[in-house]
Amino acid sequence: MYSSELIKGTLKTIILKLLSENDKMYGYEITQKVKELTGGKIQLTEGALYPTLHALEANGILTTNAVNVGNRIRKYYTITPTGKSLAEEKVTEFQDFMNTMIFLLDLKLKTV
Amino acid sequence: MYSSELIKGTLKTIILKLLSENDKMYGYEITQKVKELTGGKIQLTEGALYPTLHALEANGILTTNAVNVGNRIRKYYTITPTGKSLAEEKVTEFQDFMNTMIFLLDLKLKTV
DNA sequence: AATAATACATAAGAAAATTAGGTATATAAA
DNA sequence: TTTATATACCTAATTTTCTTATGTATTATT
């Protein structure tokens, strides 16, 4: 796991990117997907995730659709067109930020 | 300027890296150096910088040396050996984090 | 003379995560 | 069969950290 301070500020970007590439996802699924894709290095906590999802919904960036799975509720989130362009902005900004940090921290780069 | 949420968590890493490469620096100098190196894209605020410097000093990561420049005080910070290895850890961690994010966000760069 | 730049510092408030707890069903292991 | 783990949602108190604002004071520029 990375130090939490490092991950801070990337939560929204991660959520929006995942929802840009998947029609719909529910909260728990997002935590599992991120854990899987990062080999456990990023593990979203529910206390951070759910309030953020609610805020994104309140701002018209995501919409929800509650579904019954057996006797359990599952809340699917879908990204809106507004959300999709926000996602692109966020990813681009992060990429720009990384380039700045690479220069500032004097790191070496390799294209793949 | 990047959104502040994005910069959060990198402040210590930036400070420690700069002080690893410079014998001594004072607070104001750090803000100017970061501003200069990032073309104004990262501008450290005093309200964030000074408390962080004080905390790093309290934890034995930095030591200080106050100097009179004319009638004005300047507080030089120097990194300790403990601080130097922490700096390396922090930079390595950030690099690792970037690689994880590059993969997660499906970007085309990789740091070495 | 007034403004901007240099140089330090702190305190109130806001924002966001952590920690901890709550509810509940389904499945696997002991 | 009972216990633990996994699934699946949620929120509230606390902590952490930054922003914003303010304060002091010297030096340089307009």
Q: In terms of topology, how is this protein built?
A:
2 copies of one chain form a homodimer.
Chain A: H1 4-7, H2 11-21, E1 25-26, H3 27-37, H4 46-58, E2 62-69, E3 72-79, H5 81-104, E4 109-111
Antiparallel strand pairs in A: 1-3, 2-3
The structure holds a DNA duplex (30 and 30 nucleotides).
For the largest interface in this structure, which chains are involved and how many residues does each contribute? A-B, 38 and 39 residues
Helix content of chain A: 55-70%
Low-confidence stretches of chain A: none
Which structural category fits the helices and strands of chain A? alpha+beta
- Helical segment tally of chain A? 5
Strand order of the largest sheet of chain A: 1-3-2
Structural shape of chain A: globular
Largest β-sheet summary of chain A: 3 strands, antiparallel
Q: For the CA atoms, what is the radius of gyration of chain A?
A: 16 Å
Oligomer: homodimer
Q: What is the number of E strands of chain A? A: 4
How much of the sequence lies in strands of chain A comes to: 15-25%
The separation of the N and C termini of chain A measures 25 Å
N-to-C series of helices and strands of chain A: HHEHHEEHE
Average the pLDDT over all residues of chain A and give the rounded result.
93
Descriptive key words:
homodimer; 112 residues; alpha+beta; 3-stranded antiparallel β-sheet; 4 strands; 56% helix; globular; DNA-binding
Task: Give an overview of the whole structure.
2 copies of one chain form a homodimer. The longest helix of chain A is centred in the last third of the chain and has 24 residues, at 81-104. In chain A, strands 1-3-2 form a 3-stranded antiparallel sheet. Chain A is built from 5 helices and 4 strands; from the N terminus they run ααβααββαβ. Chain A has helices at 4-7, 11-21, 27-37, 46-58, 81-104, and strands at 25-26, 62-69, 72-79, 109-111. With 112 residues, the first copy, chain A, is of the alpha+beta class. In chain A, helix 2 crosses helix 5 (81-104). The interface between A and B is large, with 38 and 39 residues. Strand 4 of chain A pairs antiparallel with strand 4 of chain B, so a sheet runs across the interface. The first copy, chain A, binds a DNA duplex (30 and 30 nucleotides) through residues 4-5, 7-9, 11, 26-29, 32, 45-48, 50-52, 54, 69-75.
